[in-house]
């Protein structure tokens, strides 16, 4: 089941037989105080830098979030999306918990966006799915409901199923619903990762839809987070995860591309070998021009 | 089910609830021409260096192999084992396809060794299992038989089952049989890794025994092998692999220890955080003594 997303001129396909879709996590002021201050002052330079930097580092898509307390989030999100779209030509994941912000973002987005996110809560489903349908977008559905985040994979599957069904009632195909199986922090719950992995396999086997999660959550509060994230991603990919909102640190991107090869999504290592040669050529360049 | 191995004074326990057991792969002349030449000349310096280096890098055990064409393999293996045992105090995996070499190695090994390996071939089982039983050792059983390496996980499980049964008939407990599910080269077969992963889950679910494989095989012939191996290990660990004969390159060891944490085998990251602090302290040391 493939999910097709578009920027102005580029198409990205997320699917179980495709290379993994890396969605850059950086353009988000949560936990980035300096960036939040800049955004409050209307300074969007970091948006441009982070858009360019993440695509350069290997991002297939970018997440854009404008969640700062007490700002006009719809307006800020529009400015950030315009800036990101000017800087790079990759599809964008429009990320907000505010319905009006999602609507504002969709109104100026050029292409086919991914809306981040809806939950299995009735009210959220009724607010967000009509928007997604009207703009012919795809949507991330978090596997939680009014009662919070279910502890068991089976309950998370029920939430996912409810979202897929509600989407279909709004004319949105199951292939345009990407479920977030929810990866919590292993520093707070030693079973957080094993629960996430079992949820991923279960959703793959029962629903067959695409999945996306915030991969950096698992390592919150621990040292050497990139190394932990880089180990988590191969596990999640082997279980059936097809995309992640994640760091584009070199160790994380390399881990994903290595896993693509290992899992047969980069036949005979064509992409892996091409990337290796490009790096070798780039490393030689300064000497050649000197 | 725990497998307990011992050196002169150290005990290593391999098990599904234990941190992963890293068995250093370096002390093996296969594909190392200079090392092979040194060994032919009776120069064992590299054995000492590789023993120290791998344990320093994080190896819990060492594999020792003396397989050079036309040498007296039993004698050479004894010398290498003596040298390795003098250099470091970790349990050793005595690695040979020659029964007399395994016997010679076991005769001078101090502790409880791991014998590498037997297959599901009747003749090999009859030759090697009595040796293992007599020396109260544990044994690695390769999941292949007279017909070669089975393509399907189900056939590999049958081989594994046959080895466990034969071992029990020789008085060797299932907990002292470590099955090698066989990881082949992904550069030669795009399904090599997915087949290995399904075999690992199946053997975990059906037999519950410990498993060990040569993790570097998967990346043979490809660039950036350590990065590929470092991505393969988390997948294999999540599927149920409990040990590997592997490179102790930093990226590989870090990937294993990160996976231990993620899979709940390093509760609250105690080992991970301690290793991080030790690295920080080591990095500061030259400055402090300057």
Q: How would you portray this structure in words?
A:
The structure is a homodimer of 290-residue chains. The first copy, chain A, is of the alpha/beta class and 290 residues long. The first copy, chain A, has one domain: TIM Barrel (Alpha-Beta Barrel), CATH 3.20.20.20. Chain A is 48% helix and 16% strand. Chain A contains ten helices and ten strands. Chain A has an eight-stranded parallel β-barrel with strand order 3-4-5-6-7-8-9-10, surrounded by seven helices. Chain A has a two-stranded antiparallel sheet with strand order 1-2. In chain A, helix 3 (73-87) runs parallel beside helix 4 (99-108). Chain A is globular. The termini of chain A are far apart. The relative contact order of chain A is 0.13. The model of chain A has no long low-confidence stretch (mean pLDDT 96). Chains A and B meet through helix 7, helix 8, helix 9 and helix 10 of A and helix 7, helix 8, helix 9 and helix 10 of B.
């Amino acid at each position: 089941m493939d999910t097709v997303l578009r920027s102005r001129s580029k198409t990205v396909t997320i699917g179980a037989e495709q290379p993994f879709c890396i969605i850059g996590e950086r353009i988000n002021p949560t936990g980035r105080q300096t960036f939040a201050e800049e955004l409050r002052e209307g300074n969007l330079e970091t948006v441009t830098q982070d858009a360019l930097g993440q695509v350069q580092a290997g991002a297939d898509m970018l997440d854009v979030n404008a969640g700062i307390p007490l700002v006009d989030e719809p307006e800020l999100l529009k400015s950030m999306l315009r800036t990101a779209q000017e800087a790079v030509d990759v599809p964008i994941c429009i990320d907000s918990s505010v319905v009006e912000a999602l609507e504002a973002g969709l109104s100026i987005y050029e292409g086919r966006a991914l809306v981040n996110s809806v939950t299995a809560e009735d009210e959220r489903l009724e607010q967000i799915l009509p928007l997604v349908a009207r703009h012919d977008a795809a949507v991330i559905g978090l596997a939680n409901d009014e009662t919070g985040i279910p502890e068991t994979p089976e309950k998370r599957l029920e939430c996912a199923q409810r979202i897929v069904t509600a989407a279909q009632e709004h004319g949105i195909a199951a292939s345009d619903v990407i479920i977030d199986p929810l990866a919590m922090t292993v520093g707070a719950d030693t079973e957080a990762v094993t629960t996430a992995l079992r949820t991923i396999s279960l959703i793959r086997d029962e629903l067959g839809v695409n999945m996306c999660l915030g991969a950096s959550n698992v390592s919150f509060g621990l040292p050497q987070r990139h190394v932990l994230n880089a180990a988590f991603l191969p596990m999640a990919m082997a279980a059936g995860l097809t995309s992640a909102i994640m760091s584009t640190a070199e160790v994380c991107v390399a881990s994903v591309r290595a896993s693509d090869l290992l899992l047969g999504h980069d036949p005979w290592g064509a992409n892996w070998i091409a990337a290796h040669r490009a790096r070798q050529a780039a490393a030689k360049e300064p000497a050649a021009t000197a």
